Every structure is written in C-alpha cells, then in structure tokens.
Automatic annotation (TrEMBL):
SMART domains reported in the protein's UniProt record: DEXDc, HA2, HELICc
Residues of the Helicase ATP-binding domain: 80-248
Gene Ontology biological process: positive regulation of transcription by RNA polymerase I
Protein name in the entry: RNA helicase
Catalytic activity of the protein: ATP + H2O = ADP + phosphate + H(+)
Domain of life of the native organism: Eukaryota
UniProt xrefs under PROSITE patterns: DEAH_ATP_HELICASE (PS00690), HELICASE_ATP_BIND_1 (PS51192), HELICASE_CTER (PS51194)
Native source species: Galleria mellonella
UniProt KW Hydrolase keyword: yes
A cellular component annotation (GO) from this entry: nucleolus
Length: 704
C-alpha cells in the first residue's frame, strides 16, 4: 500500500481555521454529545424500497475488464500451479488484490475441485452474501446456482453449487455432521487474521480432516489460508511449514494520512473531518467512517444530518452499517445514490475486511473498536472501546481504492499507529467457549486435546465444560461425551443455554411461547425509541409490559405483532422495529423446524406464564441474581449473581424502577460497562432454582 504519511491539518487546527458555520457545528455537537445515550432510530428509517439485488451489476464486459486488472489475474497461471502442487498453502495478498473473489473462480475454471465443492469462509455474514453476489455476477450466473452462500438462517445454495461462500460459523456447524468435510475438496479460510473463535476452530478441523482423509485414502482436501495482514509465522508453524505465497501489487493506490496531533474526542474529530472532506471532494467520492457501535453511529448520524443543513457541499445520504442492523438494511449501503449526492457510511468493524463498496474513495478511521471480553469466573461480558491493531488499520484503509485510487484518513498520529500491536487478541482468548466446545464434542472431537492454533485460557475452558455438564449436554467435564440431550442441543444454531430452554419446553407445556421468546432474543432490539419521541414511546410500551419482567414483555409484543394485520403500520404506531420483529418470525420458523425434526410437542401454557419462566430457568439457571440485604427500596438496588458478581438491573429493563425490588431475578445477559448491569430480566421465585437445577442451587448456596 502506498503510504505517504502526509498529515492532514489536525482537526483542532481545522476547527480554528473554520468560519462562522463551524462555530455553530461545535455548539450542536456539544449539544448532541450530552444526549449521547439517546436512541435516534428514526433517522435510519429510510423510505427507500428494499431490494436484495446488489451490488449494482454493471455490464458483463466492464466486469471482465475490471477482473483482468486485478493482480491475481496477471499471475493466474502460476497461482494455479502452486495450488495444484500443495495440499496446504498460505496466500498473502494486498487488500483488493482479488483473493476472495478471484481465487475460488480460478480454481473452478480449472476444475480443481473435481467432484467436490469449494468452501470459502468469511467471519461476517454481510461479506459472505455480498461477495457471493459479486462472484455470481462475474461468472454470469444466478446466485444459488454454481455460486451460492450460506449464513445463519439463510442457505442460498443448490446441488449445483461449486463455489460456496459461507460464514465460518456455518462451516463449523457442517463439521458436526461431517467432521471430514467430505462434500468439499477445497476449503479456503479467508480473513484468517480476524481470528474469530469459529475460524480458529476451523483451522484445526481442516487440519484433522486433511490428515484423516489422507489416512483413509479418501479424496484429498486442499486447504488455503488467506489474508492481507496475517501473522504468517504462527500459521506457517501450525501448518507444518507449509508454503507461503505472496501476491504482490494492488490495483489502485490508497494514500494514508495521519492526524498531526492526538485527538481527544474521536467522534468529534470524525465529524469535523467528514465536513472538511465534504467541502473539498467531488460528490462521487463516498465516505466510509469507522465507529464503534450502534449508539455512537446514531449520534454521529444525527450530528451529520444537523450540520449538513448548513454546511457547504453536495446533498448527503448517511447510511449506518452495524451487525445488529437487519440484513436488508445492511445491504442498503450498496445501493446507489442519485447523481450529485454523497453517501456517507457509518460502520463498525463489520465493514473492515473483505467487503467492497465500490464507490468508497475516502476512509475515515477513528482507530477504535468496541470489543466484548468475557470473564469466565463471573460470567460478565465487558464492552470496552479500545484502540485497534495495525492489521485492522490496514484493513480499514483497504476499503478505499477498490475501484479507483483512494485515501484513508487516520484520526490518530503516525506515532500512535506505530506503537499499536500488529494483531488483535484472538477472540478465543476473550469469549465464552461453551457453544464452540459443544460443537467440537458433537463433531466427535476431544476438546482437551484438539490442536488449536492458540490455547484458550484454562479457566475459560473449565467453566465452559462445567456449564455444559450442568446443562446436561455432556456426561462429565474431564473426558466429556455428548449425552442424548447434548446431541439434540447441538442441532440448534443457538447458544446451548437457549437450546436447553427449547428442549425443556414440552415438559413445561410451553414450546409455543419458548420458541417465540428465543426467536425474539436471537434478534436485535425490537423496541424503537426515537430521541424526540421518547416519552411517547415509553407510554405506548406500557401496554405490553408484564409485571414479571422483560421476557414476558417481549413475548407480549411478539404475540401482538403476529396478530396485527397491517404490520408495518402497527409497528410504527407502537414504536417497534418492524424489521427485527419480522426477522424474529423467520428465526422462529427455523427453530420450529428443528423442534419438529426432534418430534417435540408444540403446546402452549396459555396464561400460566410461570411455566415459561421456569422453563427459561432450566437453561439459564446460571443467570440468577439475588437481592443483597433483603427487600431494598433504594434506587439501583444491588443484586449478587450465582457467580458472586454484584450488579444492578439495567435502566432499560421494565423492572428497573419496580419497588420493592424482587428478591430473585433471572437475566439473559450481564454487561460490564462503567457499572455491571443485568439485561433482559424477569422475576423468579427463589425456590424455583432448587426445583429446576438442584445441583447448581446447592453449589450456589454453599458459595454464598
Ligand atoms: N461488489 C463489487 N463491486 C465492484 N467491484 C468489486 C466488487 N467486489 C469486488 N470488486 C473488485 O474486485 C477487487 C478484489 O476484491 P476481493 O474481495 O477479491 O479482494 P481481496 O484481495 O480479497 O481483498 P480483501 O483482502 O480486502 O478481502 C476489488 O478491489 C474491486 O476492484
């Protein structure tokens, strides 16, 4: 990558230079910052027609011409020779050089996959979907035919599919049923540097599958590990010194600019930089801005829209892009804007790797990322904004310069960049491992001896095995074997705790309700509370509220949604997110299919909602909290969890202000920000824990 290390006039300097308008901006920004917690979903509610066809397909000739310009194209002959020669190889190539879109096509052109298929994994669903669309267009074929994709709750492939883009999680799920991955002759693990738990486990799965297929004289499995920014030595060592192919060159240069001085407030710096560039660059140059999460994106979006009313420059369309956004909304960022209008995409790191948004010419990199870390001992997740690695910085810059020369503006200094770690801490070292361990055992793999590329923290493995044992998924936590229940649990594409809830539901006569609730919990926030109508939204919400807490409140909303006839209109009137509720319906259908396969009887507990809460407890028994020091009246009453962590009910919970505080609660999530909060909370009777999970209750009591 061309890195000029020229410095943009620091944002503070910019501010000083700015004329009157800028003073107004400053004022407005400050105003909005005070409301940083505010939810401003209304601004996302674009009126555009939703379409799934993307990206915009230009003529076939243009596409072929663009392909010929890619670095991969000029060395295709040599590349194919290398791929033929080696069973495992590492391929490093600059961002945008054509690894993800071209290598699988090249392999297919030479029919190296034989009778099998080519699987290409991506850490993120949005990448898997959009790349599959692009490659299908390049190959002039329908999506779902030769080229397809498979992501959670969506499989667009057929028996004809030879080039299959999929999330790493989906390939891992396939490995449960077929640990030798026999339907594939070539597996490409892309974006290896991201080191998600699923990709880390897949590194080992393909290694074992390859060995066993060789030993059994089955058709050999070829493995290609790809990235632009990976830690080559670690991977090479892990794959027995396999060859590393470096692919030189990129199509278009990206000029990197660093801020001259440290920026105290990256959101503010981002908005200033956006407007400076907005005033000086052609409207056909779209911007991609990296921020840390939904709330921040919404705040910045609000600020941009306010400032844009007075700022010089072409009209603007602001598009958010974060994991929680419904899929259709995510795909909106690929939609063209009318000529003369600039698109500004505000994204989290989900746009950091793999994706091509063709019109992006400027990347604005705040240099930060929101990371979840998990504490095995307390079960609390910690959400932290931290500086991202150098690899992430290069990947972000790589989103510019995909179809023309581009620029990346880093809102941090060159010295700051140089001082950052080369790579981020792998997810396996900071995530709950129970879901992955369950999948490993289901695939017949011994988790304690599985050759992971990096050993996860011992206490994390131990506590995950203990949880699986207590859920009844495995017979013991030393040399674990899957129980019959565990086998069934592994068939659900959800957290084992919730799989247990569904499997226990027939016993409590509440599978109807449990399915709806788990589906809603698997979706993003269904409530929609725009900043300027908060009170109204709060009032409307009252009609759904259950005094027993958030779970039953969510269920009430879901049931009412199903009954509503004009659903979109109804959601609008009730301050609910139509997309997320519709998504929950799809998820419910998928979960129901698994339940039917398992012959579970689907019945309803009707008004006996205690049954549903007890059922919920059967999976979430480790998520109980007790009031400290008797029935408290004080605001922000403190609870203590089974693992001994002190926490309060989150302000967004319907139980937050309930007095007297219930003596015992069940929660779906525990989150540590500045304080530790219990999220999605329900009232339970303390004695239920003894009835539902006696062994755990005893252990808990002993330690309290
Ligand atoms: N949707 C698209 N629209 C237009 N051009 C595209 C699209 N997808 C890919 N391309 C073109 O193909 C090039 C190669 O993309 P590809 O994803 O294969 O690169 P890569 O080497 O895998 O990059 P990265 O390391 O960033 O994932 C892009 O730089 C761009 O020129």
């Amino acid at each position: 990558m061309d890195s000029k290390y020229a410095a943009i006039g620091g944002v503070n300097e910019l501010r000083k230079k700015a004329a009157n308008v800028d003073n107004i901006k400053v004022k407005k920004l400050k105003l909005c910052k005070e409301n940083a917690q505010a939810n401003i979903h209304v601004l996302q509610n674009g009126k555009e027609k939703q379409t799934k066809v993307l990206p915009k397909i230009v003529s076939s000739e243009d596409i072929q011409e663009a392909r010929r310009k890619l670095p991969v194209y000029s060395v295709r002959g040599r590349l194919i020779e290398e791929i033929k020669k080696h069973q495992t190889m590492i391929l490093i190539g600059e961002t945008g050089s054509g690894k993800t879109t071209q290598i699988p096509q090249l392999i297919h052109e030479y029919r190296l996959e034989g009778n099998g298929a080519i699987a290409i994994t991506q850490p993120r669903r949005v990448a898997a979907i959009t790349i599959a669309f692009r490659v299908a267009a390049e190959m002039n074929t329908e999506i779902g035919a030769i080229v397809g994709y498979c992501v959670r709750f969506e499989d667009v492939t057929s028996i004809k599919t030879k080039v299959k883009y999929m999330t790493d999680g989906m390939l891992l799920r396939e490995a449960i049923l077929d640990p030798l991955l026999k339907r594939y002759s070539i597996v490409i693990l892309d974006e290896a540097h991201e080191r998600t738990v699923s990709t880390d486990v897949l590194f080992g799965i393909v290694k074992l599958a390859q060995k066993e297929r060789n030993e059994k004289k089955l058709n050999p499995l070829k493995v290609i590990i790809m990235s632009a920014t990976m830690d080559v030595d670690t991977f090479r060592q892990y794959y027995d010194n396999c060859p590393v192919i470096y692919l030189e060159g990129r199509t278009y240069p990206v000029t990197i600019y660093h801020s001259k001085m440290k920026q105290e407030d990256y959101q503010y710096a981002a908005v200033c930089t956006i407007f400076q560039l907005h005033a000086t660059t052609p409207s056909s140059h779209d911007f991609l801005v990296f921020l840390t999460g939904q709330e921040e994106i919404e705040t910045v979006m609000y600020n941009i829209k306010q400032i844009a009313k007075e700022a010089p420059g072409p009209p603007i369309r602001v598009c958010p892009l974060y994991a929680g956004l419904p899929a259709q909304k995510q795909l909106q960022v690929w939609k063209d804007t009318p000529p003369g209008m600039r698109k500004i995409i505000l994204a989290t790191n989900i746009a950091e790797a793999s994706v091509t948004i063709p019109t992006i010419k400027c990347v604005i990199d705040t240099g930060v990322v929101k990371e979840r870390t998990w504490c095995g001992a307390s079960g609390a997740e910690r959400l932290r904004v931290s500086t991202c690695s150098q690899a992430a910085g290069w990947q972000r810059a790589g989103r510019a310069g995909r179809t023309a020369a581009g620029a990346a503006y880093r809102l941090y200094t060159a010295a700051d960049f140089a001082a950052r770690p080369l790579h981020a801490t792998p997810e396996i070292a900071r995530c709950p491992l129970a879901p992955t361990i369950l999948l490993l055992i289901a695939a017949g793999i011994e988790p304690n001896t599985f050759p992971l590329i990096e050993t996860p923290p011992l206490d994390s493995v131990k506590s995950s095995l203990l949880l699986l044992k207590e859920l009844g998924a495995i017979d013991n936590d030393v040399n674990p074997k899957l129980t019959t229940l565990g086998k069934k649990m592994s068939m659900f594409p959800i957290d084992p705790k919730y799989a247990k809830v569904l499997l226990s539901a027939p016993e409590y006569n509440c599978l109807e309700e449990a399915l709806s609730l788990v589906a809603v919990l698997s979706s993003e926030n269904i409530f929609y509370s725009p900043m300027h109508k908060r009170e109204e939204a709060f009032k409307v919400k009252q009609k759904f509220i259950s005094p027993l807490g958030d779970h039953l409140t969510l269920l009430n909303v879901y049931k009412a949604f199903c009954k509503a006839t004009l659903k979109k209109q109804w959601c609008k009137e009730n301050f609910l997110n139509h997309k997320n509720l519709s998504y929950a319906c799809e998820v419910r259908q998928q979960l129901l299919t698994v339940c039917q396969r398992l012959n579970l009887s689907v019945s309803s507990c009707g008004p006996a909602t205690d049954q549903l809460l007890k059922c919920l407890l059967s999976g979430l028994f480790t998520n109980c909290a007790w009031l400290r020091g008797g029935p408290g009246m004080a605001a922000g009453a403190r609870y203590v969890t089974g693992a001994g962590a002190a926490a309060s009910v989150h302000p967004a919970s319907v139980l937050h202000a309930v007095r007297p505080s219930p003596p015992a609660l069940l929660y779906s999530e525990m989150l540590h920000t500045r304080r530790t909060y219990l999220l999605t909370v329900s009232v339970i009777q303390p004695q239920w824990l003894h009835q539902v999970a006696p062994e755990y209750a005893r252990r808990c009591r002993a330690s309290r």
